[in-house]
Every structure is written in C-alpha cells, then in structure tokens.
Amino acid sequence: MSALLEQLIDALRVLPGVGQKSAQRMAYHLLERQRDGGRRLSEALEAAMSRIGNCGRCRDFSETPVCPVCASASRDAQVLCVVETPADRLAIEQATDFRGLYFVLHGRLSPLDGIGPRELGLDGLGTRLAEGEVRELIVATNPTVEGEATAHYLAQLARQHGVRPSRPAHGLPLGGELEYVDRGTLSHAFGSRSDITG
Amino acid sequence: MSALLEQLIDALRVLPGVGQKSAQRMAYHLLERQRDGGRRLSEALEAAMSRIGNCGRCRDFSETPVCPVCASASRDAQVLCVVETPADRLAIEQATDFRGLYFVLHGRLSPLDGIGPRELGLDGLGTRLAEGEVRELIVATNPTVEGEATAHYLAQLARQHGVRPSRPAHGLPLGGELEYVDRGTLSHAFGSRSDITG
C-alpha cells in the first residue's frame, strides 16, 4: 500500500470510535469520491487546531479572547450555568431558552485522576462569584457519581459567596450523559430547576 | 459556537458514516485531547489528496506512476487478478499468498449508472491481455448481481485473447462484500479457484 495512504489511515485513527477498518474505509472513500472534501477537511482541521483556544471568561472553546456569548450585552450576567463540557453547553443552548452565561469545567472532580478544583478552573470561578454580579449558579453537571460530587462542591462554593445554587429538575436519566438527552426532557429540566438546600 | 469549530464539524461530515452528532464529538475530542493528532491528520489528508494518483498498470491508488507491486520483479506477471476496489486488493494481499499482479476496476459494470467497460479501464486491460504475457485472469469481483455480470464480461474478454479465466472457489457468502470476508475463507477460496467454462 502507498506510504501516504498508510499514513492517512493511521492518522484517521485519532478520531474517536474509528478503528483500522473504518479508517481504511474513510481513506478510500475520500480518495475515490471526495478529494475536494478531504482537502477542505485538512484546512478546517489545521485552522481549528491552531486557532481555537479558550474563552477567558467561560473557558469554552473560542477563537477570540472572549467568546461571543460572554461578550454579548443581551445575556443575563446574573445567572451562570456550570457545565462539564462544551458539548453540554451546546446542547443547553440548542434545547432551552436559557439566556444567562456559562462556565465550562472541561471535566469533573476526580481526585483519583488528579483532577481537582484547580484543573477545572474553580479558582477563577470563585473570583468571579466574589465580584458580586452573579445571583444564581445553575449547576448542570451530569447526574453521575463524579458529576454529583462536583455539583456538591459547586453548591458550597456558591453559598460561600452568597450566590444561590440551583440545579435542573430531576428528570434527567440517571447514569446517562447530558449531551445525549432529548431536547424536550432537557428543556423541561431547565424550566423546573430547584434550589439546592441544606 | 466558534465559526472555525462549525466549519470543522461540517467538514468532518464528508467522512462516510459520520453525521452531525459524531462530527461534533470528533471535533470536541480533537480540540480537547488530540490537537497534535488533529494536525497530523490535517497534513496526512493534504498529502494524500494531492499526491496519491493511480498506478498506470493496475489502476490502484499509488503515489508513483507505477505502484510497487506492479514494479516488483518478484511478482508473477502471468497471473492477473481483477478486483473491484483497492480495498479488495488489500484484503487479498493480506489474507492469501497470491504472488501475481492485480487490476483494479474501481467499480463494476452498471449500465444504468453509465458505468461501462471504458469507465472500468477494460480497454486498457484488453490491450494488456493482447500483449501475451498473462496466462490466467483471476476474476475476483464480488458475488453480487453486478459483480457476476462483470465477471462474465471479463471471462469473455480473457477468452478472446487466449487467456484462461478463473475465479476464486465458491465459499464466499452470497450478497456480501469481498472486503469483509474473514481471512480464512478468503484464503481457502483463492486456493481452490476453478476455471470458468462454457
């Protein structure tokens, strides 16, 4: 097999869920029928990998120092929603009419993996809560064990700064990933979120 | 969402079997954990799309005018194996001890889709058979209706030039794709190939 083709098949395996056979199929498909699409993908990858960084406010992916959502004057800065991943933020944005701001953890507390508050940017979140503008912190971590532990930590952090912690209504399937919940359920859960007490 | 990210997600959908949700997942995965892998993929794609052409002898993908297999002195030029796709050729090469040469159709006869002998390079194959070096033509098209029709045409072409047509032994699952047959079955089928008579 051509060395370039072998390199392409090998490089495609960096994609999640793509093994040797799928990578082969993708490479042949591109060479056979989608050379222009393959070139466009090459350019899009290079641009995205090199130029997408993180928003200095919400930590979501952004190609500008502050992302459009954080920079928008029409969003409600008094409500801040914390999510585990950019995909969660996107799912909420697409499914609900939430107009507040976001904070992206890029993970969840997981001491055994060495992921503590610092790795999730929670020092920065604390500083932000201390500024006094945020009134409510919606904790939208996943309903998994680690997500719940993270939610507990975030609720305490909020209370320390006099901010009301809340979370989306139960109804999210336990053990599942927020990213994959159907829009109706997610929207309902956002609408009937409840305060965290105790 | 970042425009560059949207472009990346869109560009990823050129890959076979990748829809909006998978593309999103892939893009986030690369940004989050595999930036170097993403850059390598970008380079591999660009190199492959621009520099991989077709071998002038066997029509398989090649980055040189004649591919290494066709250029090799250690292959038996008296036996020529015709396959539908480069993936089929690769499967045979990996599963069997076949040491002859290949001819890749890049498709199969399909008059309704406007795919005739010319589109499959069969004029070039005819010229090659007329040269007299080839003694046996192994017709390894897929056991589908169109593949069988193509095999029939190829057998006639071989006989016209005094070349013995053969095909791999039955045992290949009907209606399936040669590319996905397990190695043992494929190897057995190659070992007990039979002449095409009548």
From TrEMBL, chains A, B:
InterPro entries documented for this protein: DNA_Rcmb_RecR, Rcmb_RecR, Rcmb_RecR_Znf, TOPRIM_dom, TOPRIM_RecR
Keyword Metal-binding among UniProt keywords: yes
Protein name: Recombination protein RecR
Molecular functions per Gene Ontology: DNA binding; zinc ion binding
Zinc finger C4-type: from-to: 55-70
Single Gene Ontology BP annotation: DNA repair
Species: Luteimonas yindakuii
Domain of life of the source: Bacteria
Key words of the record: DNA damage, DNA recombination, DNA repair, Metal-binding, Zinc, Zinc-finger
Gene: recR
Transmembrane helix in keyword set: no
